[in-house]
Amino acid sequence: MKKVIFTDHAPKAIGPYSQAIETNGMLFISGQVPIDPATGKIVEGGIKEQTAQVMKNIGSILKAAGYDYSDVVKSTCLLSDMSNFGEMNEVYGSFYSEDPPARAAYGVVRLPLGALIEIETIAAK
After folding, report:
1. Which end of the chain, N or C, is more open, meaning fewer C-beta atoms within 10 Å of its C-beta?
2. Angle at 89 between CA 106 and CA 97, to 5 degrees
3. How many domains does the chain have?
4. What is the DSSP string of 81-124?
5. Which helix (H) or strand (E) holds 63?
6. Torsion angle in degrees (nearest 10) through CA of 60, 63, 67, 69
7. CATH of the domain at 73
8. CA distance 11 to 49
9. In 10 A of CB 113, how many CB atoms?
10. Which residues are CB-neighbours of 31 under 8 A, at least 6 positions away?
11. Can you give the C-alpha Rg of the chain in angstroms?
12. What's the pTM?
Protein backbone atom coordinates (compact mmCIF):
# COMPACT_ATOMS: atom_id res chain seq x y z
CA MET A 1 0.00 0.00 0.00
CA LYS A 2 1.25 3.47 -0.89
CA LYS A 3 1.21 6.21 1.74
CA VAL A 4 1.88 9.88 0.99
CA ILE A 5 4.11 11.58 3.58
CA PHE A 6 3.80 15.32 4.25
CA THR A 7 5.18 17.63 6.93
CA ASP A 8 5.07 21.40 7.37
CA HIS A 9 8.67 21.14 8.66
CA ALA A 10 9.99 20.60 5.13
CA PRO A 11 9.34 22.63 1.98
CA LYS A 12 6.06 22.10 0.21
CA ALA A 13 6.35 20.46 -3.21
CA ILE A 14 6.94 22.99 -5.99
CA GLY A 15 5.45 20.71 -8.62
CA PRO A 16 3.26 17.64 -9.10
CA TYR A 17 5.04 15.36 -6.63
CA SER A 18 4.89 14.35 -2.96
CA GLN A 19 7.54 15.10 -0.35
CA ALA A 20 7.81 11.34 0.11
CA ILE A 21 6.04 8.06 -0.53
CA GLU A 22 6.18 5.07 1.80
CA THR A 23 5.46 1.59 0.51
CA ASN A 24 6.38 -1.90 1.72
CA GLY A 25 8.71 -0.67 4.47
CA MET A 26 10.56 1.71 2.17
CA LEU A 27 10.50 5.50 2.11
CA PHE A 28 11.24 7.37 -1.11
CA ILE A 29 11.99 11.06 -0.44
CA SER A 30 11.76 13.40 -3.41
CA GLY A 31 14.76 15.54 -4.24
CA GLN A 32 15.12 18.25 -1.62
CA VAL A 33 16.57 21.66 -2.40
CA PRO A 34 17.75 24.07 0.33
CA ILE A 35 14.46 25.84 0.93
CA ASP A 36 13.80 27.00 4.48
CA PRO A 37 10.22 25.84 5.11
CA ALA A 38 9.61 28.84 7.39
CA THR A 39 10.33 31.37 4.62
CA GLY A 40 9.78 29.35 1.46
CA LYS A 41 13.11 30.66 0.12
CA ILE A 42 16.54 29.23 -0.57
CA VAL A 43 18.78 29.70 2.48
CA GLU A 44 21.51 32.30 2.22
CA GLY A 45 25.12 31.22 2.08
CA GLY A 46 27.14 28.76 0.10
CA ILE A 47 27.23 25.02 -0.39
CA LYS A 48 27.74 24.25 3.32
CA GLU A 49 24.66 26.18 4.40
CA GLN A 50 22.61 24.80 1.53
CA THR A 51 23.66 21.20 2.20
CA ALA A 52 22.83 21.59 5.89
CA GLN A 53 19.34 22.88 5.02
CA VAL A 54 18.73 20.03 2.57
CA MET A 55 19.75 17.51 5.22
CA LYS A 56 17.47 19.20 7.79
CA ASN A 57 14.59 18.98 5.31
CA ILE A 58 15.33 15.29 4.74
CA GLY A 59 15.46 14.76 8.51
CA SER A 60 12.05 16.38 8.95
CA ILE A 61 10.52 14.11 6.32
CA LEU A 62 12.20 11.04 7.80
CA LYS A 63 10.81 11.95 11.23
CA ALA A 64 7.29 12.58 9.87
CA ALA A 65 7.32 9.07 8.42
CA GLY A 66 8.74 7.44 11.57
CA TYR A 67 12.26 6.95 10.21
CA ASP A 68 15.63 8.53 11.01
CA TYR A 69 19.00 8.99 9.30
CA SER A 70 20.11 5.48 10.37
CA ASP A 71 17.35 4.06 8.13
CA VAL A 72 18.69 5.76 4.99
CA VAL A 73 20.03 3.21 2.48
CA LYS A 74 20.67 5.37 -0.62
CA SER A 75 21.14 9.01 -1.47
CA THR A 76 21.62 10.76 -4.79
CA CYS A 77 23.29 14.16 -4.64
CA LEU A 78 22.98 16.60 -7.52
CA LEU A 79 25.45 19.50 -7.55
CA SER A 80 25.32 22.52 -9.81
CA ASP A 81 29.14 22.73 -9.55
CA MET A 82 31.31 19.69 -8.79
CA SER A 83 33.96 21.97 -7.28
CA ASN A 84 31.58 22.09 -4.27
CA PHE A 85 31.87 18.32 -3.77
CA GLY A 86 34.38 18.45 -0.89
CA GLU A 87 32.45 20.97 1.20
CA MET A 88 29.14 19.21 0.48
CA ASN A 89 30.71 15.90 1.49
CA GLU A 90 31.91 17.36 4.79
CA VAL A 91 28.41 18.54 5.80
CA TYR A 92 26.63 15.48 4.38
CA GLY A 93 28.98 13.15 6.24
CA SER A 94 28.21 14.81 9.57
CA PHE A 95 24.67 13.39 9.33
CA TYR A 96 25.94 9.82 8.78
CA SER A 97 28.72 9.25 11.32
CA GLU A 98 28.22 5.45 11.29
CA ASP A 99 27.35 3.11 8.44
CA PRO A 100 26.67 5.79 5.80
CA PRO A 101 24.22 4.91 3.02
CA ALA A 102 25.12 4.06 -0.54
CA ARG A 103 25.40 7.24 -2.58
CA ALA A 104 25.90 8.74 -6.00
CA ALA A 105 26.83 12.34 -6.76
CA TYR A 106 26.40 14.04 -10.11
CA GLY A 107 27.22 17.42 -11.55
CA VAL A 108 24.25 18.94 -13.35
CA VAL A 109 23.78 22.05 -15.46
CA ARG A 110 21.12 23.69 -13.31
CA LEU A 111 18.91 22.97 -10.30
CA PRO A 112 15.47 24.34 -9.38
CA LEU A 113 15.38 27.89 -8.01
CA GLY A 114 19.12 28.32 -8.58
CA ALA A 115 20.01 25.89 -5.77
CA LEU A 116 23.58 24.62 -5.47
CA ILE A 117 22.46 21.15 -4.33
CA GLU A 118 19.54 18.74 -4.42
CA ILE A 119 19.44 15.37 -2.63
CA GLU A 120 16.96 12.53 -3.02
CA THR A 121 16.88 9.76 -0.43
CA ILE A 122 15.63 6.23 0.06
CA ALA A 123 15.16 4.76 3.55
CA ALA A 124 14.10 1.29 4.65
CA LYS A 125 12.91 -0.36 7.87
Report:
1. N
2. 130
3. 1
4. -GGGHHHHHHHHHHT-SSSPPEEEEEE-S--GGG-SEEEEEEEE
5. helix 47-64
6. 40
7. 3.30.1330.40
8. 16
9. 13
10. 76, 78, 118, 119, 120
11. 13
12. 0.96
